[in-house]
């Protein structure tokens, strides 16, 4: 009966993309936010951004929605809208104060994630993007389990170039394989820094074992792109603005846009193939 | 229990390294702190309770090590230049380094309790406990298991943004 409820709610979702890492602090939320903005630039598309990082929800701040609350209506919880076609849900909206710690064990976190899927009135959605916390635990198992009521197009896995990140990301890739979650590809963030003054390039996080490129080759997954470090990215996130809109000329923006396009193409192709089969 | 009293009884100070945020340098700081304290002549141990993303073994170049059992429990892996820093991490229990530990809370809690009570730490001046990001199972279980012992306090790590 529960599965049926979830299926009904998620029936109107065309594409679902999970944003994962194994490692914390590599830019999952940043990427999720920009992916959402990028997809919503097409006003004919309805985009939903679901933040299931219960302990460290970054999405409200990054989307400029801090302090917003969730309203209930007859049809369920209403997402918080950034644009008419871009709705957001996060535990951040349920806290009385932004510094309140959510100190919950797994089962309670799972319960809230299920509520987010069952009780939020997303309406018709072209793209549902799910931002996750680092790791391979309750949140990840639960989201894959609950979303089996609809289908997940795939996962985008985010990393940075250094081996300490890659070693966690390989585990995440194995997690995806274990739960049969298709991998759309890997994004390498913080991939080099170009000084705005002297234009010299530095490797702030040197890829001592070949970076994401080598890892993708070895594990036969797609490298969607590399995004250089740009201090404006962090600033835009802190101010709740879209970096793509604030710094349209940045090489990082170009990288992000290319990656977003590749994800879009993957989803559209996937859908086309499914329709062909049917 | 008797085992609990034995295994942590010789540890003078226990320090937790926390953040809320991932990727800010908890494991890096834990490692550097351990090495610095060791340089200063202290007896040091590191307990890595990040079960999904254990970074400490690689940072101390022992990612290929395995752990053994003795009468009082698990024997930690000894690391550092003089092999005198005691380290326990789930990294040592994996069959392959890329194996994902895909566990829900209860299973993580059980292992953390074991790590706290069943590792034969011996006599240490400092036991540094490295944690994963968040405020969830690992953190609750670690603090609960360590509370009856000599818990000095927590160091919080962040980045500027």
UniProtKB/TrEMBL annotation, chain A:
* Domain AAA+ ATPase residues, every copy: 14-185
Q: Does the keyword Zinc-finger apply?
A: no
Organism name? Struthidea cinerea
Listed GO CC annotations? cytosol; nucleus
Q: Which SMART domains match?
A: AAA (SM00382)
Protein task: Component of the cytosolic iron-sulfur (Fe/S) protein assembly (CIA) machinery. Required for maturation of extramitochondrial Fe-S proteins. The NUBP1-NUBP2 heterotetramer forms a Fe-S scaffold complex, mediating the de novo assembly of an Fe-S cluster and its transfer to target apoproteins. Implicated in the regulation of centrosome duplication. Negatively regulates cilium formation and structure.
Question: Has UniProt tagged this entry with the keyword Cytoplasm?
Answer: yes
The record's listing under Pfam families reads:
ParA
Q: Where in the cell is it found?
A: Cytoplasm; Nucleus
**What name has this protein been given in UniProt?**
NUBP1 factor
Major subcellular location class: cytoplasm
Q: Which GO terms describe its biological process?
A: iron-sulfur cluster assembly
**Keyword annotations:** 4Fe-4S, ATP-binding, Cytoplasm, Iron, Iron-sulfur, Metal-binding, Nucleotide-binding
Q: Name one GO molecular function term.
A: ATP binding
TrEMBL record, chain B:
Q: Please name the source species.
A: Struthidea cinerea
Single biological process term from Gene Ontology: iron-sulfur cluster assembly
**Which keywords appear in this protein's UniProt record, sorted alphabetically?**
4Fe-4S, ATP-binding, Iron, Iron-sulfur, Metal-binding, Nucleotide-binding
Q: What is this protein called?
A: NUBP2 factor
Q: Which PROSITE patterns match?
A: MRP
Presence of the UniProt keyword Metal-binding in the record: yes
One Pfam family hit = ParA
Q: Which CDD domains match?
A: Mrp_NBP35
- Cellular component aspect of the GO annotation: cytosol
Q: Which Gene3D superfamilies match?
A: P-loop containing nucleotide triphosphate hydrolases
The Swiss-Prot or TrEMBL record annotates one GO molecular function as: ATP binding
């Amino acid at each position: 009966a529960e599965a049926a409820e979830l299926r009904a709610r998620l029936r109107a979702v065309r594409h679902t993309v999970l944003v994962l890492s194994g490692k914390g602090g590599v830019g999952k939320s940043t990427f999720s936010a920009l992916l959402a903005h990028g997809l919503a630039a097409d006003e004919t598309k309805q985009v939903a951004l679901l933040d299931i990082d219960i302990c460290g929800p970054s999405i409200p701040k990054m989307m400029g929605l801090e302090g917003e609350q969730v309203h209930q209506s007859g049809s369920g919880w209403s997402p918080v809208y950034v644009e008419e076609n871009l709705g957001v849900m996060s535990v951040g909206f349920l806290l009385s104060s932004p510094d309140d710690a959510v100190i919950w064990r797994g089962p309670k976190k799972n319960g809230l994630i299920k509520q987010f899927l069952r009780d939020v009135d997303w309406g018709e959605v072209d793209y549902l993007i799910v931002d996750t916390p680092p790791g391979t635990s309750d949140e990840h198992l639960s989201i894959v389990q609950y979303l089996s009521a609809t289908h997940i197009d795939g996962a985008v896995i985010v990393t940075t170039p250094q081996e300490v990140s890659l070693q966690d990301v390989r585990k995440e890739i194995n997690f995806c394989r274990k739960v049969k979650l298709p991998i759309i590809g890997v994004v390498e963030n913080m991939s080099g820094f170009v000084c705005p003054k002297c234009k010299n390039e530095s490797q702030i996080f040197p890829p001592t074992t070949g970076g994401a490129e080598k890892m993708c080759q070895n594990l036969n997954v797609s490298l969607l792109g590399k995004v250089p470090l740009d201090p404006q990215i962090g600033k835009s996130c802190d101010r709740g603005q879209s970096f793509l809109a604030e710094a349209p000329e940045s090489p990082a923006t170009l990288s992000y846009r290319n990656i977003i396009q590749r994800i879009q193409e993957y989803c559209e192709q996937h859908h086309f193939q499914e329709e062909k089969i049917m | 229990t008797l085992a609990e009293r034995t295994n942590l009884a010789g540890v003078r100070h226990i320090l937790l390294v926390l953040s809320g945020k991932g990727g800010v340098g908890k494991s890096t700081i834990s490692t550097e702190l351990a090495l610095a304290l060791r340089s200063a002549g202290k007896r040091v141990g590191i307990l890595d309770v990040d079960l999904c993303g254990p970074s400490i073994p690689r940072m101390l170049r022992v990612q290929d090590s395995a752990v053994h059992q003795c009468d009082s429990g698990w024997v930690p892996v000894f690391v550092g230049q003089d092999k005198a820093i005691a380290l326990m991490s789930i990294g040592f229990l994996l069959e392959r380094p890329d194996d994902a530990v895909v566990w829900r809370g209860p299973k993580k809690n059980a292992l953390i309790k074991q790590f706290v009570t069943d590792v034969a730490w011996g006599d240490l001046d400092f036991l540094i406990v490295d944690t994963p990001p968040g405020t969830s199972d690992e953190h609750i279980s670690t603090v609960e298991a360590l509370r009856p012992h000599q818990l000095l306090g927590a160091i919080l790590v962040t980045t500027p943004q």
